[in-house]
Amino acid sequence: MVHHKTAERIFRIATSLPPYELSLDDAMNLPKAQQLCWTAMECGDRSEAIRLAVEATKLTPLCADAFNLLADYICYNEAERLTLLRWATRVGELCCRNRIAENTGHIHGFLDARPYLRARTELAWTLRQLGCYEEAVSHYEALLSMEHQDHIALGMLMTSYLELRCFDKAKRLLDAHRENGGTFLNYSETVWCWLTQQDNELFNNALNHALNSNEHVPLLLEKPETPIEQSPFGVALGQADEAAEYVRVSHRIWDAFPQLKRKVITDAKKLLPAVKAEREQRIRRMRGEL
Predict the structure, then answer these.
(1) Counting Cβ atoms within 10 Å, is residue 274 exposed (0-12), middle (13-18) or buried (19+)?
(2) Of 40, 148, 230, 263, which sits with the fewest C-beta atoms within 10 Å of its C-beta?
(3) pLDDT digit string, tens, across residues 250-280
């Protein structure tokens, strides 16, 4: 637990206005504070992680990752979490604004930008949880603009566009990122086809692509209590844990359209044998070429 005076200080910082420029002291202390945060992320002990994050805030209140960590550890509700993440986003941008300006579109490769990207991603997610969908969308759009390969922002933005019935924006996003594919995008295209009343052939083609990217989604839509084996190395592409992540994020739109959910579950059972056979044939061809 954090002492109440420490918590008061942290929230007092987060509700203030950040400076327009880094002071010399902040610039010199920021690397030390960031090192404390990296240690906190790796230590595996909640109390120690909190202690290190608090120490980082004492070095400088402009260390975004310190507030990212405290948002996870000391907040009692989403409103408090929102306060800390807004501050982390503001100061994160302040600390890497030149990096963003010079490398827009490919920012993720720079370590000094990642605290800001983490803060803004978590801020967008928290806003979604609070029902502030439009504001969350603006953050996901900005994240995808700064990093074109941000698959989290891409998947969340596509899902959000469908939730808000922004079908034209969803179509443009699909067309722009179709080559990247993936579970989020392919199942989103299936949803888009149904919501925009495309013909059955287009719907089936989209569902076929979706099943090729991840066959586990329909099962989890039908039986959400199905136990899932988690990969020890994060979410594994094409596996059940990735399907669970997709369903967790997009459940609102599936719940809003039970007829669509039933159709995907039913049609997937008909299409899956051919999808699996095609995949096995493709694997055999690849092995034969080696």
Answers:
(1) exposed
(2) 230
(3) 999 999 999 999 999 999 999 998 888 887 7
